[in-house]
Write a structure and sequence with these properties.
By secondary structure, this protein is of the alpha+beta class. The chain contains 18 helices and 23 strands.
Length: 673
């Protein structure tokens, strides 16, 4: 178990006492436990993205490295060591550019190999407050900033905790050497926790490692092994008591200090006793989580890099065609300029689709919910789903016309179902059947405790079933996690099911999974039924003629992008509207107050400095409860909550005609204010 040293009082003035404290750990470059510290060094190197990382032990005349990565040196004189400065303060010492720091500008480690420019060192402070050394990062390139000092300090505390364990084990070993019995010596000095129980789970004895983690074993015979586990280990004991020779298991436990300990247990029975040996894997789990985060960031980098490449291509198409159109208009070739403008518009539309795919990846896409008939959508989906399959797969569709209507983004639901069909295809190595079916369902108040957090009411269930090999419980519990995939490298990103779940959650529903090894898999999308009061047509399309609206309408426009604000002003003014424009929500309120004019409609961006569009909408409704509000976004999408009053949300980029039509429809539906 690692000790909590975060509240240790630092003692940095007495170097003699510090060196005396250091000797108690009996540290040596050839120690056999150096590999224990390598994982923390690797995490530190990945965290800082540096060429080298190392754990430095600062002695009287030298510093040497207990664990290191990316550096060939094994020691240096203390007089030139950066770490000699770092141990004098409890804070992380950061040197962004050593060539500009008077302390190091002439240092041979700077002027010569390894040519240090950037350095960050966190002191390794023991339980008595003395800095034994440092956990360091260094690089041959300077930096402008370093924001990960708190995390580096946290890793240094883990190194200190390991060293504290080393010192305690040294003391235990000295005591164990006095014992003649080899078994007692192993019992007393083991890093692993050892426990003896009866076959019913009553504690008999625990070794010092156990008592260090969980306290002394009570001698009254009332302590049970399940008292120490956050989830009961009784089932494992029963398995051993029933005749299994050995059981391997991992359990989450609660230490005497209240901290969580993850332990890997081996259980065996001898007579009427069960013997258990456990290894603390808490640090290993933390390292695995750090590695998983690094891998996720690499995946994000690959995705965004690819999107940037495609987006730059599209920008080249757009800007190139606009240049061509400008030249043709200047030379009087107006007819030929039209084609270049059409090409630029096509590139812009493709760029908009690309950004929507990126937002879908992040589950931040803007949804356009409309009232639909599920049976019609599924029938329209069949040709697309059939094209995704080959001769080995048979597609069956079961969709009654009696399905209740729902309010959902039809295109996103279609994409989600198609995604599930493709996943079902990939899960079937042998020929088989894929079924898409939907049914009405009701959730009762008794269902509210099933863990999905969905309210009671009417739902439509969309099910995609395959006759494949099914999914094991261990894999199934991770199946909706982003970046998790069971497909071969290059055949899946692990994002599909995560996106499906995100879309369904945005739409007010939830997702369930029905699967077992050898029994196929069914993914079920539960989407709430549209109440008549909620039913409304799609208000965002521009296909219909513009309805009539009040004459001389004034639009209050808030948009922080000056170029876009000027463009929208031009569009609205050409359509006959009066415009009061402002660069943010606060400026919009100020200009309304100054003009003394009450606007007929508010058109506002969501993300702005000072006062954003959500806050502006709230303030407007306080003044004029019936004021129509249209919000614009290129990012927030479904992030708007019920506390943000607005009539409509329009997603950037939008066509001028679509914006004008949307505003006219909104004004025509609201009585004059």
């Amino acid at each position: 178990m690692l000790l909590n040293l975060s509240h240790t009082i630092f003692k940095g003035d007495d170097d003699a006492a510090r060196l005396a404290a250091l000797r108690a750990y009996k540290l040596d470059p050839d120690d056999g436990d150096n590999a224990l510290y390598a994982d923390l060094v690797a995490i530190a190197q990945a965290l800082g993205g540096c060429e080298s990382a190392f754990i430095s032990i600062v002695e009287e005349e030298r510093q040497w490295f207990k664990a290191a990565r990316g550096i060939t040196l094994t020691q240096t004189p203390r007089a030139i060591a950066f770490c000699d400065h770092a141990i004098r303060s409890p804070e992380v010492m950061v040197v962004l550019d050593a060539t500009t720091d008077p302390r190091f500008v002439d240092n041979p480690l700077v002027t010569g190999p390894p040519n240090i420019r950037f350095y960050a060192g966190a002191p390794i402070i023991n339980a008595d407050g003395y800095a034994l050394g440092t956990l360091c990062l260094s690089d041959s390139a300077p930096r402008e900033r370093f924001d990960d000092a708190p995390l580096l300090a946290a890793l240094a505390r883990q190194v200190a905790a390991l060293l504290e364990l080393r010192k305690q084990l040294i003391h235990q070993q000295i005591a164990a050497d006095l014992a003649a019995d080899q078994r007692d010596r192993l019992w007393d000095s083991s890093l692993d926790m050892m426990l003896i129980t009866t076959v019913t789970g009553t504690l008999v004895a625990g070794n010092p490692a156990w008592e260090k983690a969980f306290g002394p074993v009570p001698l009254d015979g009332r302590a049970h092994v399940s008292d120490y586990f956050t989830d009961s280990a009784q089932g494992d004991l029963i398995a051993v008591a029933s005749g299994e020779s050995d059981v391997q298991t991992e359990r989450e436990m609660r230490g005497a200090d209240g901290q969580t300990i993850y332990a890997s247990w081996s259980l065996a029975r001898e007579g009427d006793l069960i013997f258990g040996i456990a290894r603390d894997i808490t640090r290993a789990r933390a390292a695995e989580a750090q590695l998983a985060q690094v891998q996720r960031m690499e995946s994000i980098g690959q995705l965004t890099g690819g999107i940037a490449h495609d987006f730059n291509n599209l920008l080249t198409i757009i800007s190139g065609n606009l240049d061509i159109a400008q030249k043709r208009i200047a030379s009087g070739q107006v007819d030929r300029a039209g084609q270049a403008i059409a090409n630029a518009r096509d590139g812009a539309n493709r760029a908009a689709n690309l950004t929507q795919r990126l937002l879908a990846y992040a589950r931040r896409q803007s949804l356009t919910p409309t009232k639909i008939k599920p049976a019609d959508l599924i029938r329209d989906l069949v040709p697309l789903a059939s094209q995704a399959l080959d001769d080995r797969h048979e597609l069956k569709v079961e969709c009654p016309d009696s399905l209740w209507p729902i309010i959902v983004d039809a295109s996103q639901l279609e994409n989600a179902l198609l995604n599930l069909v493709v996943n079902a295809r990939d899960a079937m190595d042998a020929p088989g059947e894929i079924t898409v079916h939907a049914a009405n369902a009701e959730r009762t108040p008794e269902d509210a405790d099933d863990g999905h957090g969905a309210p009671p009411g009417r739902y439509v269930r969309f099910c995609v079933n395959d006759s494949g090999s099914g999914i094991s419980p261990e894999v199934a519990k991770h199946i909706f996690e982003p970046f998790f995939t069971t497909k071969d490298v290059g055949k899946g990103t692990g994002l599909g099911l995560s996106q499906v779940q995100g879309f369904v959650a945005q739409s007010g529903g939830f997702v369930t999974l029905d699967t077992a090894p050898g029994e196929g898999t069914t993914v079920i999308l539960w989407l709430p039924v549209a109440d008549d009061a909620e039913s409304r047509p799609d208000r965002g399309s521009a296909g219909s003629a513009d309805p009539a609206c009040h004459e001389d309408c004034t639009i209050l426009l808030a948009e922080d992008n000056a170029a876009l604000r000027a463009h929208v002003c031009d569009v609205l003014q050409e359509a006959g509207f009066k415009v009061i424009d402002a660069e943010d929500g606060q400026a919009a309120l100020d200009r309304v107050d100054a003009s003394g004019t009450q606007p007929d409609l508010v058109l506002s961006d969501i993300t702005m400095p000072r006062m954003d569009g959500k806050t502006l909408a709230v303030e407007i409704r306080k003044r004029w409860p019936e004021m129509p509000i249209v919000l614009m976004t290129g990012y927030a999408g479904g992030a708007l909550d019920g506390d943000c009053p607005h009539n409509l949300l329009i997603t950037k980029p939008f066509a001028p005609d679509d914006l004008v039509a949307l505003i006219r429809r909104t004004l025509s539906a609201v009585p004059a204010i």
